[in-house]
Every structure is written in structure tokens, then in C-alpha cells.
Fold this protein.
Amino acid sequence: MSGRPTDEDIARADIVIAADVAADDLEVRVAPDHKVEFHGHDQAASGTNRENLPESVTEGQRYRSVRISYALEARAAGHAEPD
């Protein structure tokens, strides 16, 4: 995932899930295997902004001063954009 949805996308969304987390010290014991899938036509977006943490982490690696900002935004099916 890359880049959080824009503030404009979030403002137009019907559903928003967001989280901000920080850690002074983070040890990766098992690298996650994750993905986010959307079904439909350009009705959702998600992504992260990361500080001091790569997109693909390494098992056994220690990361310091980590910050992750995640957002998922979606629009209801059939939702019309305002004129």
C-alpha cells in the first residue's frame, strides 16, 4: 500500500476507517502477508504513510521511531457525486 487517500477523497466518502500508531521500538517477529481488495468501480481506496518503516519489513529486524498513518475510504454503491 502506498500513500493514504487524499483529504478530499476522505471528505467525499460514506465510510472511513483510519488509524495512527507510533512506536519507539518495533521488532518484526513474523513479516505479515497482507492485502486489501475492493470490488466495484473506483469506489474505495486505502493506503499508509510510514515513517522509519519500509513497505516490506524484514523478519527479525528492529525498527525505531516508527509512525504509521492508515486510512480506508469507500463510497456506497450507486452513490452519485454532487454537482
